[in-house]
Amino acid sequence: MSQAAVELRDVTLRRGRVTALDGFAVTVPEGTVVGLVGPNGAGKTSVVDVACGLLRPQRGEVRVFGHDVRRDGLAARRRIGLVPQETALYDEVSAWRNLRFAAELHGLRRPDGRIAELLELVGLTERASDPVATYSGGMRRRLAIARALVHEPSLLVLDEPTLGVDVEARHQVWGHVRGLRSRGHTVLISTNYLDEAEALCDRVVVLRAGRVMAEDTPAGLLARAGRSVDVECSRPSALLLRESLLRDPSVTRAELTESGLTLLVQREGKPEALVRRAMDEAAVSGFRVRPPDLAEVLRTLP
Questions:
Q1: pLDDT one-digit tens code per residue, 2-50
Q2: Which percentage of the chain shows pLDDT scores above 70?
Q3: How far, in Å, CA of 132 to CA of 93, rounded?
C-alpha cells in the first residue's frame, strides 16, 4: 500500500472573519495526481498554503510524507516543490541564472547537470541564455515548474498552473505534468479549469465554501450524473420542451443552449424515451446522447 504524500485532517483555517477551510480533509496518495476544483473563494489556494506550511490552521492535522508540518515543517518542505499562481521569476536574467539561484538556495552542489536536465525536460534548452523578460506566459510557467523541481522534490504543488496562458501552452504544461506522474512524482493541482482536472487527475476534490462537496475519480464523478442529451431545435421549441421535460423525475437539469436544449438525465433514466417524447412535442432537427462533462456534473452537486 502506497504512503500518503499529503494528509489534511479536520483542518479549519480562519482569515479574519472568513472561514477559508471548515473541517477540511483530504488524502493525496503517493504517485497520483489529485485536483482541487471549485469556484473562486472555495478554498483551493488555502489548501495549497496549508499543505505547504505557508499558513498554520487554527485546528487540524497536516502531514507531508508523514512529517507533521507544524512540528517538522523544514523536513516537510524539503519534499515539496511549489509553483504558485504568480511565477515570481527574475525577469532581468536568464532561465539558467534563475535555476542556478534556486539551486543555491537549496544548497545543491555542482547543480549544472541538474539545471541542464530540467531545461531539457521543460523544453527551454535553446532559450536558456535569454532573459526571462522575453519569454511568453507558457514559457514562464514551464520555467517555474523547472524551478520547483530543482531540488528533486517528491511532491509538486501547482496552484492554477495554466492561468492566463494560451491553449498550446496549456497542453504543453499538461504534457509535463503527465511526464512527472510517469516518473513517480505526486502532484497536487488547484485549478478552475474543469477540463484540466478531467485530463490530468486520478482523483478530483470538489470544494465549496472551504468544505469538500465531493471526491472521486473524474470517471466516477461523471458516472454519478448519468447522461446528457443535446436536443437541436428552435428557441421557441426549446422553451416548450424545457418546461415539459423538467416534469420527468429522471431529468435533473434542462438548460437552454445556442442550438436548443441540453438535458441532464439520472443514471436510472431513459434518454431515448425522452428524445422520443421531445420529437412528439416539438420540431426537433437532431439529438445526441453523451456522457456529461465535468462542468455539468459539478452543477448537479448540492
A1: 679 999 999 999 988 899 999 999 999 999 999 999 888 889 999 999 9
A2: 99
A3: 6
Rounded to the nearest 10 degrees, what angle do helices 137-148 and 95-105 cross at? 20
| CATH class (in words) of the domain with range 225-300 | alpha beta
What does the domain layout of the chain look like in residue ranges? 4-222, 225-300
- Reading the block at residue 260, the C-alpha cell is 436548443
CATH superfamily of 4-222: P-loop containing nucleotide triphosphate hydrolases (3.40.50.300)
**pLDDT tens for each residue of 71-100:** 998 899 899 999 988 888 999 999 999 999
